[in-house]
Structure formats: structure tokens, C-alpha cells
């Protein structure tokens, strides 16, 4: 219980920036994981459209990662401008 | 067989040698001199933000400072005059920001210790501007040599720089411009090629270690200007169908558009968010990559401070391995961010010039 309290105190230090950044990373992980998973599945179903699927997977992953980075930058700003 | 063993021995030797670099970090604090503790956050921020001089190892190369203000006019001098925090010619520099200061007077500080004074316009050649010049110079060399090669060797196989650039240019034309824009892609191709190579070379420049750490594309102003260029081109080239889709979206019930323009509000949000998201994606990706690599390296020094030289040695193997891994990922990210920025710009151009066949 003590350890949990200490960890939560640290993560909550700069207005919860630590928790915010962690959640952004989790969101990115889930999103890009789903994109990669469905891309691999469709590549296995239809190997001749490998190149097209790969291109669109990269585009979608970059867009999702953009949203995650938005959250990370906001948390970084909270830490730096406190 | 002997060659294989020698190769393995060579790599093991290199690995051991690189891990001993942490010993040099330990020596300073073991001497008992007045040495500041290693502040990782400060070091990382200093490397990621802009700077008025270039640090290459122990070498400090001062860059010119160019200041303009309506009171004092134009002042150009070397940054070595201001780098020690002393006032010079009525200016003083703190944390890479230049303020006005009275002759022989102290500056006003607010409660957090920051200077509270007016600032002149700072047009200095900073580290990022210098990196911009390097990128531009490299791009000019590559493209002009390729163009001259095409003129000299018409109808022949390409050679030299021309041969390197041709598959890349064809990649941008056939994979990015043509599928996204359609028939009228040629007018947009010079701009797309420019931003693709500028972002790619700028990203790669930031990855080269030991030359001072240029963070060209990781600067939010650079990313913002490029996104604004793309934004401006979509506005300039938007045809009537494009603006009608934003202002008075066809095919949507009238009560979403007339008393309260809800549809316009939604479309406007999408319209404004495009350059903002382009900027943030590029800036955040590149800066985050630099911060991660710098963090792994500073881990060695942090462990050195906490557990002595042994800790530094031990963690340096892991640290170097992870740094190499992150560098490899950052190489991929350099190309990927250039590709995504160019592709999205091309898609926005395509939607601006698209000819809709209205089936009425």
C-alpha cells in the first residue's frame, strides 16, 4: 500500500503529467496494435495486395501516432511551464 | 575461420571500448573538484532547443547575432560577446533569449528569477538556422547536379547523383503525387519534392552525433511554416466545389446549415486542424526521438552519480545497445515523417482541385 501511494504521488507530481503521458502511450499502443493486426490479417488473406496494404497501414499508423504525440506534448508543456 | 574469429574479436573489443567511455564521466566527480552534479533534464533541453553557438565536444563555435529594434536599429556581432551572461552594447542574454538592459544597470527580475524586460527582434543565425542552411545547401547540390545530368545526358542512362535521385523523385511522383492529386499533379510536384527532401534531410541531420546536434525539423516554427505553406496552397488552389463543401455542404439536410451553421462549424474545425496536426506530428515525432536517445545516453551519467563508476560501466552496455536501437528506429522515422507529411499535403491538394461530377 505504501509503495502504491509513493508511486501515485510521483506520477501526480506535475498536475498528473506523468499519468497523462502514460495514457497517451497506452492509447497509441492500442491504436497502432489494432492497425497492425488487421493489416497483417488482410495481407495473409490476399498476398497480392501486400504493397497497398503496407502503404495504407503506415499512413494510418502515422495519423494515430500524431494524436498520441499531441497528448505527450501537452504533458511535456505542463511539466516545463509549471 | 580465422577471419570469422577476428571479426568477432574486433566487435567484442569495440563493444568493450565504448562501455569504458563512462569511466571518463566518472573521473571528474572523483577528483573532488567543484563540479556540478549532472542534470539530465537541463542537458536534454539544452540539446533539443535552439542555441546561439555550436558545441562540438570542447569546441564552442560562436554564431553571429543579428538584432533589430526600432530604438537601436540593426546590431550584428558575434555571440561570444554575450555568451558569458555579461551585458554588451545594451543587450544581455539569458537562457538563449536576448533582452534590453540599461547601461551598467541591473535587470528587473520577476519572482521566479526570470528577466522581465523588453526584447529586440532576434534574427540571429542560430544553430537551427545554420542547420537549415546545411539542409538547403545539400538539397541545392543534389537537385542542381541531377538537373544538369539530365540536360547533359538526354535519352541516356542516368549516372552519379542523377542515378541516386531518380528513383526517389519517381517514388514521390508515382506513389505520392499521382494517386493523391490525379491529372493535375504536375503543378504541385516541385513543392512536394521540396518538402519531402527538406524534411527527410533535416531529420537525418538531427541524427548525426558529435557535430553539435542540429534540431532543424524538431523546431516547431520550422514545422509550422511548412504546414502553413501547404495550407496556403490548398486555399489558393481550392476550386468552387472545395469551398462549397466547406461553406454549404451539399447533400446535407438544410436545418443543419441554416439557422445554426453546424455543418460549417464542423467543416471549419476540420479545415483548421489540418495544418495544426501536420505541424504537431512532425515536431513532436522528431523532438521526442531526440529526447529518447539523449535520455538513454544520460542514463549512463545518472547511474554514475548514483552508484559510482561501477554503475556507470554496467548500465552503459544496455544504454549503448538501446541507443543504437533507437537510432535505427529514428532513421525509419526520418523517412516516414517526410513521407507522411508529403502524402497528407498531396491528399489535401487533391481534395482542393478535385473535379466532382455532380449527378443531379
- List segments of chain A where confidence is low: pLDDT < 50 over at least 5 consecutive residues: none
What is the total tally of β strands of chain B? Answer: 7
- Biggest β-sheet of chain A: count, sense, barrel? none
Number of helices of chain A: 3
Descriptive tags:
heterodimer, A: 82 residues, mainly alpha, 3 helices, elongated, B: 360 residues, 2 domains, three-stranded antiparallel β-sheet, two-stranded antiparallel sheet, 9 helices, 7 strands, 8% strand, globular
SSE blueprint:
The complex is a heterodimer of chains A (82) and B (360).
Chain A: H1 2-11, H2 17-45, H3 50-80
Chain B: H1 2-19, H2 21-30, H3 40-48, E1 53-56, E2 59-62, E3 64-69, E4 73-78, E5 91-94, E6 97-100, E7 121-122, H4 127-152, H5 161-181, H6 189-207, H7 220-237, H8 240-247, H9 262-353
Antiparallel strand pairs in B: 1-2, 3-4, 3-7, 5-6
Brief digest:
The complex is a heterodimer of chains A (82) and B (360). In chain A, 85% of the residues lie in helices and 0% in strands. Chain A has 82 residues and is mostly helical.
Notes on the protein architecture:
The complex is a heterodimer of chains A (82) and B (360). Chain A has 82 residues and is an all-alpha fold. Chain A has a domain of 47 residues. Chain A has three helices and no strands. Chain A is elongated and about 55 Å long. With 360 residues, chain B is mostly helical. Chain B folds into two domains: 62 residues, no CATH class; 227 residues, no CATH class. The longest helix of chain B has 92 residues. The relative contact order of chain B is 0.12. At the A-B interface, helix 3 of A face helix 9 of B.
Amino acid at each position: 500500500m505504501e509503495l502504491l501511494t509513493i508511486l501515485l504521488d510521483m506520477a501526480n507530481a506535475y498536475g498528473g503529467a506523468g499519468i497523462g503521458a502514460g495514457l497517451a502511450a497506452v492509447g497509441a499502443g492500442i491504436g497502432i496494435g489494432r492497425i497492425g493486426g488487421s493489416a497483417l490479417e488482410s495481407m495473409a488473406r490476399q498476398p497480392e495486395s501486400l504493397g497497398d496494404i503496407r502503404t495504407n497501414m503506415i499512413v494510418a499508423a502515422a495519423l494515430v501516432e500524431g494524436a498520441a504525440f499531441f497528448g505527450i506534448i501537452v504533458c511535456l508543456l505542463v511539466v516545463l511551464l509549471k | 575461420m580465422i577471419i570469422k574469429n577476428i571479426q568477432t574479436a574486433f566487435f567484442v573489443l569495440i563493444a568493450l571500448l565504448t562501455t569504458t567511455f563512462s569511466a571518463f564521466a566518472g573521473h571528474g566527480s572523483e577528483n573532488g573538484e567543484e563540479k556540478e552534479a549532472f542534470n539530465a533534464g537541463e542537458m536534454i533541453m539544452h540539446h533539443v532547443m535552439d542555441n546561439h553557438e555550436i558545441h562540438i565536444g570542447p569546441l564552442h563555435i560562436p554564431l553571429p547575432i543579428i538584432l533589430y529594434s526600432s530604438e537601436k536599429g540593426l546590431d550584428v556581432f558575434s555571440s561570444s560577446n554575450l555568451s558569458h551572461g555579461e551585458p554588451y552594447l545594451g543587450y544581455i542574454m539569458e537562457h538563449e533569449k536576448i533582452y534590453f538592459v540599461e547601461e551598467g544597470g541591473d535587470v528587473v527580475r520577476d519572482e521566479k528569477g526570470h528577466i522581465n524586460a523588453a526584447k529586440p527582434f532576434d534574427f540571429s543565425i542560430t544553430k537551427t538556422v545554420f542547420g537549415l542552411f546545411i539542409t538547403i545547401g545539400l538539397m541545392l547540390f543534389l537537385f542542381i547536379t541531377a538537373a544538369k545530368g539530365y540536360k547533359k545526358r538526354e535519352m541516356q542512362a542516368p549516372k552519379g547523383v542523377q542515378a541516386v535521385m531518380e528513383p526517389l523523385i519517381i517514388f514521390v511522383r508515382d506513389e505520392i503525387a499521382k494517386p493523391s492529386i490525379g491529372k493535375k499533379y504536375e503543378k504541385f510536384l516541385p513543392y512536394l519534392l521540396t518538402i519531402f527532401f527538406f524534411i527527410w534531410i533535416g531529420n537525418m541531420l538531427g541524427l548525426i552525433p558529435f557535430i553539435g546536434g542540429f534540431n532543424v525539423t524538431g523546431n516547431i516554427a520550422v514545422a509550422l511554416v511548412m504546414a502553413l505553406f501547404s495550407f496556403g496552397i490548398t486555399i489558393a488552389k481550392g476550386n468552387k466545389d472545395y469551398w462549397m463543401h466547406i461553406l454549404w455542404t451539399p447533400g446535407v439536410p438544410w436545418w443543419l446549415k441554416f439557422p445554426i451553421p453546424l455543418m460549417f462549424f464542423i467543416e471549419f474545425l476540420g479545415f483548421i486542424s489540418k495544418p495544426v496536426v501536420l505541424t504537431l506530428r512532425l515536431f513532436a515525432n522528431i523532438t521526442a526521438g531526440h529526447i529518447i536517445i539523449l535520455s538513454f545516453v544520460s542514463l549512463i551519467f545518472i547511474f554514475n552519480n548514483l552508484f559510482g563508476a561501477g554503475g556507470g560501466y554496467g548500465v552503459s552496455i544496455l544504454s549503448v545497445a538501446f541507443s543504437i536501437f533507437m537510432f535505427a528506429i529514428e532513421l525509419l522515422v526520418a523517412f516516414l515523417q517526410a513521407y507522411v507529411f508529403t502524402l497528407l499535403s498531396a491528399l489535401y491538394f487533391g481534395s482542393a482541385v478535385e473535379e466532382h461530377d455532380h449527378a443531379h
